[in-house]
Structures are given as C-alpha cells and as structure tokens.
Design goal:
The protein is an alpha/beta fold and 214 residues long. It has one domain: 3-Layer(aba) Sandwich (Rossmann fold). The chain has 8 helices and 5 strands; from the N terminus they run E-H-E-H-H-E-H-H-E-H-H-E-H. The chain has a 5-stranded parallel beta sheet with strand order 2-3-1-4-5, sandwiched between helices. The longest helix is centred in the middle third of the chain and has 25 residues. It is globular. The structure holds thymidine-5'-phosphate (TMP).
Length: 214
C-alpha cells in the first residue's frame, strides 16, 4: 500500500505521519516512511539546493526538473523496491506537490506537470493521498514557530518566505486538484488538535485498508 501526505507548510504532516505509521503497524503491515524532496542519496543533495535561500535565482523550469529528478530517483531506488517487498510506504509529499506548487503556485500548466510526473514515476501512483488542509495564515504561523523552536532560521526557509498570495494559490490548488482526483484523495481538516486530525486520517487509512483486503 502506497500512501502520500500533502499540504501547505505547518499542517502537522510530521505528527500525522508518525501516527499513521503506528496505525498501519498495529494492522500488521511493515511500514517504510520517506519524503520528497530528499528520499534518496541524490535527493538529499537536491533537497539542499531546492530549499536553500541561496537558490532564490533558480528559474521555474530548472526547479521543476530538479523535483522531477528527485522523484524519478526516489521511485526507482526506494519506493518501488519497498512496495515489491510487500512493505507499505508512506511518503511526506509526492507528485501532487509538483502539480500544486509549480503549477497552481508558480503558473506552469497542471496537466503538463501531471504528464511529466507520470513519466518521472513510471506510472506509480499512490493508493491514497491524504491532503491536510488548513488556512495559510494558521499553517505559516505554525511553520514559523517550529522553525524558531528548531533554530532553523532561513536555511530551509525558501518556501516559507513566499508571499501570502502564493500560499493561498497553493492551498486552493490542492483543493482543486483533490476534487479532480477524488478517487485517491482524502481531504482532512487540519485546523483541529492532533487527535481530532488523526481521527480523520485514521478513517481514510481504514477505508484504504478495507479496499486492499477486499
Ligand atoms: P517540506 O517537505 O519540508 O514541507 O518542504 C518541501 C518544500 O518543497 C515545500 O515548500 C513544497 C516544495 N515542493 C515543491 O515546490 N514541489 C515539489 O514537487 C515538492 C516535492 C516540494
């Protein structure tokens, strides 16, 4: 089973993923967690470049192809082998991030991005994509507080530093894209407490587990 988590900054993805892993393990699955960008050796180098404030001069197209390169390497060296072994894989972000950030956010054509993604992932699409949805104001405040707590400052802050209307477009893009791909998306209201959010995440996982067993 392949599950991806999506959402803007500060939705609590990390917390929800940890709980999802626990839940799937309780259901007897071997679970691997991973992330994009950065789920392979090459990916970790690309992540540093992509998220650094020093990369502010990256052009939109160059940025796009770096995300696609990260993804192609990630799928072939990590995700597909784990699934072939019978493990469940949970990825913190995947192809939908490209459609939404580079497409709805930066203005590239979402349908073209979908086709490029399909080539990068060689047809490997998630069984379930959980979209943690939150108002950008709330999400960014959470992300900002977390960066301060973790002493991250601006090292990995290129996206947090984008203007609010970019984050608004990304949030709305996610909701549009989720509605267009309703067969695999579950949209979760991420504004509540971690327990309230996880109740919705668990329902989505349980539905996917039931389909898998049927
Ligand atoms: P995060 O995973 O730590 O939230 O940071 C990853 C950032 O990279 C996030 O702001 C979204 C952005 N991103 C894209 O713009 N396109 C992509 O394809 C991916 C995977 C991430």
């Amino acid at each position: 089973m392949f599950v991806t988590f999506e959402g803007i900054e500060g939705t609590g993805k990390t917390t929800q993923i940890a709980r999802a892993v626990e839940h799937l393990r309780e259901n007897g699955l071997e679970v691997e967690t991973t992330l994009e960008p950065g789920g392979s050796r090459l990916g970790r180098e690309l992540r540093r470049i992509l998220l650094s404030m020093e990369s502010r001069d990256l052009t939109g197209r160059a940025e796009l192809f770096l995300y696609l390169a990260d993804r192609a390497q990630h799928v072939e060296t990590f995700i597909r082998p784990a699934l072939m072994r019978g493990a469940a894989v949970i990825s913190d972000r995947y192809a939908d991030s490209t459609v939404v950030y580079q497409g709805y956010g930066r203005g590239l054509d979402p349908n073209l991005l979908h086709r490029l993604n399909d080539t990068a992932v060689d047809g490997l699409w998630p069984d379930l994509t959980i979209l943690l949805d939150i108002e950008p104001e709330t999400g960014l405040k959470r992300a900002f507080d977390r960066n301060i707590r973790e002493g991250k400052q601006n090292k990995e802050g290129r996206f947090e530093a984008e203007a609010m209307d970019f984050h608004q477009r990304v949030r709305e893009g996610y909701l549009t894209w989720a509605a267009l791909n309703a067969d695999r998306f579950a949209v979760v209201d991420a504004s509540g407490s971690p327990d309230e959010v996880f109740a919705q995440v668990r329902d989505a996982l349980d539905r996917a587990l039931a389909i898998r067993q049927s």
